[in-house]
Amino acid sequence: MLAGVNPVIIQRLQEFPPASRLDPEVYGNQTSSIKRKHIEKNLDGLTVDETYASRTLLFLQDNGTLRPLAIELSLPHPQGDKHGATSLVFTPADEGVEGAVWQLAKAYAAVNDSGYHQLISHWLNTHATIEPFVIATNRHLSVLHPIFKLLQLHFRDTMYINALARQILINAGGILELTVFPGKYAMEMSSIVYKNWVFTEQGLPADLLKRSVQTAIEAWVDDYCSFYYSTDDMIRDDTELQSWWMEVRNEGHGDLKDEPWWPQMQTRAELVEACTIIIWVASALHAAVNFGHRRFMPESGTPEYAELESNPDVAYLKTITAQFQTLLGVSLIEILSRHASDEIYLGQRENPEWTSDNRIVERNNDSRWKNCNGPVKVP
Ligand SMILES: [Fe+2]
């Protein structure tokens, strides 16, 4: 349940306890409150130096499955952000009130996970960040341009669905704010996370790299681009390509235009890298995140805690999102997760390829057609 909806954000733990990248001057000490004592009893004899996780700590077991070790729930400090967060740490329990508390903690983690999944992994990292590439491709590359032909199919329906999302989903008072997402802060969160977006880091997680999926897209794009661009000079001299990239960087992603990681688009290697990332984000990564899917923690001594002891199921239902909002939210995600009836898979084309490249070369080299060039010798 915990690792379910959004496996693309699970990361290997680099340090223990997990640290934060927030500025301590502004947000105080945000280092995790999860201690060794919380998790070592469930580590099958290992120590904390051998775990995998984020602030929900998950243990990758020998059988390849993930087991939750600890969940840390944090609130802003009542005296202000610079004092750090106030945090509670929960660990697995099967029975009694501890079992009910653990059940609730997992529900909180799952709600945060699904909110992050739809807002950041799905909307921001695929739909929103690819949009400038779609616009610049249509504005600057002619329909005969090889890079237009390469990318166009991967942008199918993106502008349409993004426009619809702006009207009813992510707008102020829209469906996202009404359901399981963090109300009026939903888009603000997404905007803040975008400030740290890095185009060249949008490649594949290591587990997919291992299965050679990234390599397949990259090898294919490299073959394709090498057919049209035999030298780096041809990249620099392609005015359509250069104005396309200028617009993506300076207009579409204008807030990030001065970041050092932008490919300069001066070499074929840079073109291949950029097209590989765009195709990966707009196809397989998007598919992975698209398809699929209060009250505070009761404190001991309160009536809510007593209810948790006597009737944990009722307490659980009172805490999680109400029935109507849940139905609305689940229906929305169900609709958003539908596959189109006219899907086209990677490597397939929507229309017969009238400029089938290899065939043109073959026929140009066929002596039977040597008189078909016309006076200007265009093959
Ligand atoms: Fe989507």
TrEMBL record:
GO terms for biological process: lipid oxidation. Keywords: Dioxygenase, Iron, Metal-binding, Oxidoreductase. Residues 1-379 form the Lipoxygenase domain. SUPFAM superfamilies: Lipoxigenase. Its cofactor is Fe cation. The keyword Metal-binding applies. It holds the Pfam family Lipoxygenase. One of its GO terms (molecular function) is oxidoreductase activity, acting on single donors with incorporation of molecular oxygen, incorporation of two atoms of oxygen. Belongs to the lipoxygenase family. This is Lipoxygenase domain-containing protein. It comes from Solanum pinnatisectum. The lineage of its organism: Eukaryota, Viridiplantae, Streptophyta, Embryophyta, Tracheophyta.
